[in-house]
Amino acid sequence: MKVLITGGAGFIGSHTADALLAAGHSVRALDILDPQIHGEARQRPAYLAPEVELQVGDVCNPDDVASALDGVDAVYHLAALTGVGQSMYDMTHYARVNAIGTTTLIEGIVKGGHALKRLVLSSSRAIYGEGSYVCPTHGEQFPVPRSRERLESGRFTMPCPVCGGDLDAVPTTEHKRSEPFSVYAITKKHQEDFVRYAAETFGLPAVILRYFNVFGSRQSLKNPYTGVVSIFYSRICAGQPISVYEGGLPVRDFVHVSDVVAANMRALVADVPSGSTFNVGAGVASTIGDIANALARAVGKPVTMEDRGEFRVGDIFGCVADLTRSRAELGYAPACSLDQGMAEFAGWASGQPSEDRYQQTVAELSRFGLFGRAKGG
Where's the NAD-dependent epimerase/dehydratase domain (predicted)? Predict the structure, then answer.
């Protein structure tokens, strides 16, 4: 097939292109080459396979989209802005790229009469908001987001709505109600809603993949707003301490890009109903301390972690993927462990220029009241 990848010059898109080429497909990438990721020169990245036909353009521009769709059989829609913190104050930009970019793509497919074999949307676990929780006494619970007052008091755990005790994070299924908390999460839900609408209304054969915390080679080492692994790497290499937010208690599901690509490839050919949604994660809960220590082992340098009671407004406490449906229906089976993934990332990053721009993010978030510290922290 001839496959279009929007955002195809980026981190996940370029790895997906490699896999598609290896499988015998031809690949076109539509990418704006965002300076925040690719640098002010906006040059074709060296890691992008030469066989990829790169079309520099805007997914929000109907003419660029129409040109990119010409002659393609399938589309991966990966083009999106991804920084949770940045989204909280850069709302218009995120809404335009993520939501309007998706409707522009769908309109291009429908109005252009393109009979696609598959559209794969890269969504996010962020649409869940908080993940699933259980109370040891009162069972399954769906707590509301933590108040700023609670965070400022240093109570970071999720409280049971019934008894007020600490809740335990458990794997989150695709059936959990969507309760997006950040602007980024809201725009990802909009993407899903638009794609499901197109699937139901126009018969567009779509599959939605909810990526969890993706990491690996080709992740931007210069963009301070996305990818905690990249931020930690720059701090460790600079000999700077890592600030552990919320006492290091929050849990996430870090999945290596190789496993995400495997899910992407399965989604292209899987015999599943249009509009099907699947979690793509490792299915393993990791704390921020786990991530920092695994990266330090891979780099071979010590890491110093500082707990100053810091937190970011817009962050959730925990979300880990339940992969039951993905395994059964998509045939997805993550194969890369955290240590293996960190070794792959560190091996690649060691040959790349990186910048420690952590303080820049703190300054920006603080400017808009989105960065806080517990009293006494």
Answer: 3-141, 168-281
Domains located in the chain, CATH noted? 2-373 (3.40.50.720)
Q: Name the strand (E) or helix (H) holding 23.
A: none
Cα 325 to Cα 173: distance, rounded to the nearest angstrom: 8
Using the structure block, give the residue that is written with the tokens 């809960």.
Answer: 285
Give the CA count within 13 Å in the CB-facing half-sphere of 3: 31
Active site residues: 184
Question: Please, which residues have CB within 8 angstroms of residue 115's CB and are 6 or more apart in sequence?
Answer: none
Q: Which two tokens stand for residue 293?
A: 């220590």
pLDDT band, residue 48 (cuts 50/70/90): very high
* Helix residue ranges, H only, the chain: 11-22, 35-38, 62-69, 84-87, 91-94, 101-111, 148-152, 183-202, 228-237, 257-269, 288-299, 324-325, 338-349, 358-367
Size (the chain), residues? 377
The answer to whether the CB of 78 falls within 8 A of the CB of 122 is yes
Q: Give pTM, 2 decimals.
A: 0.96
Residue 205 and residue 118 in contact, taking contact as beta carbons nearer than 8 Å: yes
Distance from C-alpha of 18 to C-alpha of 74, rounded to nearest angstrom? 16
Buried b (16+ CB within 10 A) or exposed e, 90-126: beeebbbbbbebbbbbbebbeeeebebebbbbbbbbb
CB 187 within 8 A of CB 92: no
Q: Per the structure block, which two tokens stand in for 154?
A: 């240093």
Listed in sequence order, the residues at least 6 apart from 50 whose beta carbon sits closer than 8 Å to its beta carbon are: none
Identify the residue whose tokens are 């010409």. 70
- Output the CA angle 268-38-263, nearest 5 degrees: 20
- Please give the distance of CA 57 from its chain centroid, rounded to a whole number: 22
Q: Write the CB contacts of 39 (distance below 8 Å, at least 6 apart in sequence).
A: 222
Q: What is the residue type of 202?
A: F
The secondary structure of residue 97, as a DSSP letter, is: I
Q: Using one digit for the tens of pLDDT, what is the confidence trace for 207-259?
A: 999 999 999 999 988 776 667 898 899 889 888 999 889 998 999 999 999 99
Q: Which residues in 354-365 are b (16+ Cβ under 10 Å) and which e?
A: bebbbeebbebb
| Under 8 Å between Cβ of 301 and 367 | no
